[in-house]
Please model this.
Amino acid sequence: MFMFGWCDGCQAIAIEGLCPRHGETRPIPTINKVDVCPLPEFEKEFLNDHMDGLKLGEGVFIVYGDRSLRKLIVALDRPLVEIKVKKDGVDFIPLTKGEVTGMNPDSLWDANSYRLNRLIRVSKSFARHELSLHKNAIILFSGGKDSVVLAHLLEEHELKKVFMDTGIEFPETYRFVDALKKKGWDIDIARAEKNFFRLLPEMGYPKYGNRWCCKTQKFEPSEKYIKEHFGEHQVLAFDAERRWESLYRLHEPYKRQHRHIPNQYSVHAMIDWTAMDAWIYMWRNRLPVNELYRYYDRGGCWPCPFGLTYRSFIMEHAHSKLYRFLEGAGVTSNSYGVSVRPCTEGKPMNHLVFSDERLLNAVARLLPDVCDTFELHESQKVICVPVNVSKTKLNSLARTARANLMKANDSA
Model:
């Protein structure tokens, strides 16, 4: 059950609307999403630097918003800040005044201990049942908060943890995994043999409906690792997938055969946990935290197209080098760097409108291959081309130009 309430006694959110210590709570009617997340510290500092009349103080604040992350709300028992993501930037709108103190992590445990203890018990008992039936098992360890929680939940079984090195993890994740290994964590590393950046010109930038990178950077190294260590025997792969993370995972079962690796059976031991459940457990047990969460509410591969609109805005300030790659690839806006529009002056021309000057220049260098005449308006980031040049050709040209920029960035 998810009916978010505010416990005045704990001064914290109760995820199920009842506090184990104080009973009934006040409803928080504005929360529109199950998987609310804590506001990252970097984002809090950024908001404080760009808002007048409101300061977010010490403690935990939550963030929720729409599915495409076009509008986010920072809140406690009421909305405090509205964040609007636009094509030309991001607006921060304070909804109250003064200095506001966030929630204490210990109080969050108090307000949600009954729920957490049930989740912990079920996750552990289900895992014990699966392990009583299968001798081959590993933990898929991403370096994110959920996989840290999972490793802690299953520590009594002393399972090998396997980190899939996609080649495109954030630098903080690589440092985090190295630090855990030095502390004695039993972590194997399975590295992707294919280079993401070298595949881009041929495969195109990953997008909804074309997630080729998951296969080449995750599934293939996972399959190789399992074959090397277990042959053709069935293997349980405990992972920390949660159904509330995305629509794609919403209807996932607790256990299923992997779609691409026949002898791997994925066990989602935390399938019904929320992000706040995981964080409250982390804080309660003083577990190590990937530094990446200082900047973002989720980890994963940094070029991932899912949630990129707002993440790229944070990356511009927190990971400027990685952001420049995305900018050069033309994926820092919804138009993916270029859109085709009719000429506003009624001429038999189409306008190629760019969000990135480098992509404009890269396309301009290739245009003579497809048309004899075109007009370049650098100050407006527009190229005018004859209407008889098909959009298919123009899109293909833009893909080639983006690939050339990616190669240049990669070699640099």
In short: The two ends are 51 Å apart (CA to CA). The first helix runs from residue 41 to 50.
